Amino acid sequence: MKIKILIIAGVLIMASGCKKLFEPDPENLKTIDQMYTDAAYAQGFLVNAYRSIPSYYDNSDYATDDAVTNQLSNSYLQVATGSWTSSNNPFNLWQSAFGAIQYLNLFLENVDKVKWAEDQAAAQLFNLRMRGEAYGLRALYMYFLLRNHAGFTEDGRLLGVPIITSYQTINSDFNLPRASFDECVKQIYRDLDSAEAYLPVEYNNISNPSQIPARFQHITQNVETYNRVMGVYARQLFNGLIAKSFRARTALLAASPAFQASENTNTWADAANYAAAVIDYKGGVSGLASTGVTYYANASEIDNLSEGNNPPEIIWRANIATNNVDMEREHFPPSLFGSGSMNPTQNLVDAFPMANGYPISDPGSGYDPSNPYANRDPRLSHYIIYNGSVAGVSNSVILTGSSSGTDDGINRRNTSTRTGYYMKKRLRMDVNANPSSTTGKTHYTPRIRYTEMFLIYAEAANEAWGPTGTGGHAYSAYDVIKAIRRRAGVGVNNGDPYLEECKTDKDKMRQLIRNERRLELCFESFRFWDLRRWNAPLNEAARGMDVNGAVYTPFVVENRSYQDFMRYGPIPYSEVLKFTNLLQNKGWN
């Protein structure tokens, strides 16, 4: 775990397109002491941590029953088909996360020495804000380390990762043991407590002193000073609402079946309560964003983003990219000049219910195997391109059958679908990826969606209090799922009788909630982790559908090859070799 940090100016530059934070010295090297008088340089340590945040769209869906890829050398495909080892692990965040934590610890140990501004009140607010950001980011990295690397050791202990809250120097002891899973969760909560204490819930400009949050009023009553530090210029930096969201994420992970052990004190009620805090801030169940189903393609919302603001569905996002075609070039069908990389499976298609709310396997569904895409949950056509779908700027008909005679057909070329489906979610249909007449559009990548928080509450509340229990809140798991399905257009014309059936059965509601999570968050890199934390089967073969005329031919596209111990990720083999106190998870070498 020994992480050598070279404080080089070049690594403290914001991502491409962002403004340079400082000018390097002639010898291109700065010392720690220089951060005390150079606020931009000091802030660079935080910037470096922001730059390492794991990608929301990491395409780990390729390793699940939701999707395959036509990129046969893809590392997630290799994981799914039997090549996952502790030294060949695309889910490894160990070095990058602990590297970010090193920067954050160094920053926290020096933040009080930095001259943030000439104005004393502004300097004090900057100190608090950046301290809060650092604590929040350290919690974020600990969450991802737990998600990716926590597990049971050979002797049956549920362990997390080493807890490191001070900057490690060359003289530090790097041979640290892993803390218990429960201790790691508690450390995350402590850091989130600090983040919430130092940060506003959101960064907004105010117009009069009475709007300054009470905990900052002793520092300043000046509107301009507050807005300078805590106003819109700070949007998309870590804030109190993000801290609340990561608390809910952490609690959901900790309460899940895969992490149950006598020493784990976390409960489903904790997860439900933490998610409820975010939902209440949004205005309750009625606050569910009406446009959230198609957050990625709502042209007016996306194109009018300014001053760092968010669409109603979004809690946190990365920077916007204008005139961009990258996502479409990667995932459009070849006839639309894309590489068709993400191929949804028949497994996922079958998970979408009928518009009347019944699963397609239910006798009351009205599902017609000879016309399988008719009268389905509207999310199916929003998220997946199937045979006969229209897509692209010209509403081109996409034919996916192996005998279609088009490059969009199954396995026609290395950019064609392997399953008979293409991903539509994440893509804007008003993008033209034709190299001779390219038209790019504005895009953003989420980091946290409100819908995720609603789904966390539904899952946890059902486990804690049953389908209709509220635990003292104003809504139940049933209420939340009803709102999500109604927004999607499911069960709106018949009162959603299938949901009413589930309302009286905790186990049936659990399966419905898990399925709603699968649909709402498909292609957003949740499925891999959800299957594992649920202790759900990992080896369901990825299936496809070959549609030629009226003939529908199902087939197996790709088998999955996971062993039971693989529901917990490994500690990197190189780290276990170096440090004798670092125990490996059971089953991994």
Automatic annotation (TrEMBL):
Transmembrane domains' residue ranges: none
Family matches, as PROSITE patterns: PROKAR_LIPOPROTEIN
Major site of localization recorded for this protein: membrane
Protein's cellular compartments: Cell outer membrane
Every RagB/SusD domain range: 334-588
SUPFAM superfamilies, sorted: TPR-like
SusD-like N-terminal domain residues: 32-208
Keywords: Cell outer membrane, Membrane, Signal
One Pfam family cited in the UniProt record for this chain: SusD_RagB
InterPro entries the UniProt entry points to: SusD-like_N, SusD_RagB_dom, TPR-like_helical_dom_sf
Family stated for the protein in its record: Belongs to the SusD family.
Protein name listed in UniProt: RagB/SusD family nutrient uptake outer membrane protein
Organism encoding this protein: Mycovorax composti
